[in-house]
């Protein structure tokens, strides 16, 4: 994966152009209005994106239409996914933290008490935090879960873009 790709997508104007192109093929004039910068600036950024193979161009008369090419972005998503924890990792970690303390087993001394009927009640407060559980024994919606959702959504968008056909019809 070209390391230049990260420099290309690091620019906020280029990211905005990519976002506009994610909705479909767009003319340069449309992109100028949508992004709110001058035509030469948009053209300069589109050239950088084209050189990085992130966009393709189609000429129709004197107009130029650009379309998003998702291939290089898929590589970025796949690489970022390697940095994220495996979806099962938090559950396995919670299990490992809680097993020595008998989670899932109700202590004999607490049978019939309100505390024993609360999920996760067998764990101390610090152990609940370490297991990623709230006081009711529910798994929170923390950063890991949010990243899972974002990664899944990004993959859906890339898959949808890969199915779209751009360019001349034959």
Please describe what this structure looks like.
The structure is a single chain. With 170 residues, the chain is mainly alpha-helical. It contains eight helices and three strands; from the N terminus they run ααβααββαααα. It has a three-stranded antiparallel sheet with strand order 1-3-2. A hairpin with a 2-residue loop joins strand 2 and strand 3. Helix 5 runs antiparallel to helix 8. It is elongated. About 5% of the residues have low confidence.
What is shown here, in short?
The protein is mainly alpha-helical.
Give a quick set of tags describing it:
170 residues, mainly alpha, 2 domains, 8 helices, elongated, transcription regulation
Query: β content, as a range?
Result: 5-15%
| SSE class | mainly alpha
Contiguous uncertain segments of 5+ residues: 113-121
Largest sheet data: 3 strands, antiparallel
- N- to C-terminal distance: 32 Å
How many individual β-strands? Answer: 3
What is the topology, as strand order, of the major beta sheet?
1-3-2
Helix content: 40-55%
Shape: elongated
Give the radius of gyration: 25 Å
Encode the helix/strand succession as letters: HHEHHEEHHHH
Question: How many individual domains?
Answer: 2
- Can you count the helices? 8
* Rounded average pLDDT: 73
Secondary structure layout:
Layout: H1 4-10, H2 12-22, E1 26-27, H3 28-35, H4 39-51, E2 55-60, E3 63-68, H5 71-83, H6 89-98, H7 125-131, H8 143-163
Helix pairs in contact: 5-8
């Amino acid at each position: 994966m070209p390391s230049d790709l990260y420099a290309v997508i690091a620019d906020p104007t280029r990211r905005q152009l990519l976002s506009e192109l994610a909705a479909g093929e767009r003319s340069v004039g449309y992109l100028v209005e949508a992004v709110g910068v001058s035509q030469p600036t948009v053209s300069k950024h589109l050239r950088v994106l084209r050189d990085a193979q992130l966009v393709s161009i189609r000429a129709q008369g004197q107009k130029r239409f650009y379309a998003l090419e998702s291939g290089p972005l898929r590589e970025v998503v796949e690489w970022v996914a390697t940095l994220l924890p495996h979806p099962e990792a938090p559950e396995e970690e919670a299990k490992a933290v809680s097993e020595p303390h008998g989670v899932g087993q109700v202590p004999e001394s607490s049978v019939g008490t309100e505390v024993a009927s609360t999920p996760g009640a067998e764990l101390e407060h610090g152990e609940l935090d370490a297991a990623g559980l709230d006081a009711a024994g529910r798994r929170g919606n923390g950063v890991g879960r949010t990243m899972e959702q974002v990664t899944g959504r990004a993959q859906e968008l890339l898959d949808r873009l890969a199915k779209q056909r751009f360019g001349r019809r034959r």
